[in-house]
Amino acid sequence: MKWKGQRKxxxxxxxxxxxxxxxxxxxxxxxxxxxxxxxxFGGENVQQLTPLLEQLQxxxxxEQVRQRDLTPEEIELxxxxxxxxxxxxxxxxxxxxxxxMTYENPGMVLFTDNVSTACGNATxxxxxxxxxxxRKVYMDLAxxxxxxxxxxxxxxxxxxxxxxxxxxxxHVQTLLGTSGKVRKLQQGLSQTAANKLSVSLELQxxxxxxxxxxxxxxxxxxxxxxxxxxxxxxxxxxxxxxxMQGHVTPDSFTHGTSAQRIExxxxxxxxxxxxxxxxxxxxx
Length: 284
Fold this sequence. Notes:
This protein has helices at 28-39, 50-56, 72-98, 143-149, 157-176, 178-186, 191-215, 224-234, 237-245, 258-271, 279-283; strands at 12-14, 18-20, 64-66, 107-110, 114-117, 120-123, 129-131, 136-139. By secondary structure, the chain is α/β, with parallel strands linked by helices.
């Protein structure tokens, strides 16, 4: 992606290279694996897991201490993420204005290993996520190497851009009231029915990521879209379950299949029309 020299977001807090003074309680690694399976790209579901996270991570200090300097590669990766967030700010300000609304920028926190948020404490194993309580995207950028080596994604800078755009898509859902409505609808539903609404929410965030890419085509390079589609393929519920347990359980899906994630990203990219992203009408 042609990103160097473009405007960087001013809404990024870089906590990488820092470590909290506390210690993650025993069991933190296990819950990280559980969250990875349940909550990959878990835009809204992190909040639901907050009590369990806090129980297993009691005693973790929120005081951050710089432990080391960032490497040149880490600095460049941070610059890239900051620039991508800037791209999303420009795009969504335009889309909201075109629809008679005002966009409010999210924040983004780059961290290493573990982080304290308004949705509770989380570890790197959670994967990138959006916290609606403080309206911030949280990312441990080391996740993307794991996405490539463990889950078979092609990698590349646009895979990172896709994930950032997906998480910002959850912020858009918060601003539009979509995620709040979904949480209310999920109350009292069976787990299977609630999961279906979660899938629609996640696929809509994929659609919004594609819409963002549509608006930024002049910055794309050959192979960028393929990198995004490879990442979407790698994090489908079916792909993750096959890799981790050898079979799939469709009723437990919370994010959609690989094919669905690819389809909705493509739909956003090809149409560039926010009105075409009603995943709820088509899937429920």
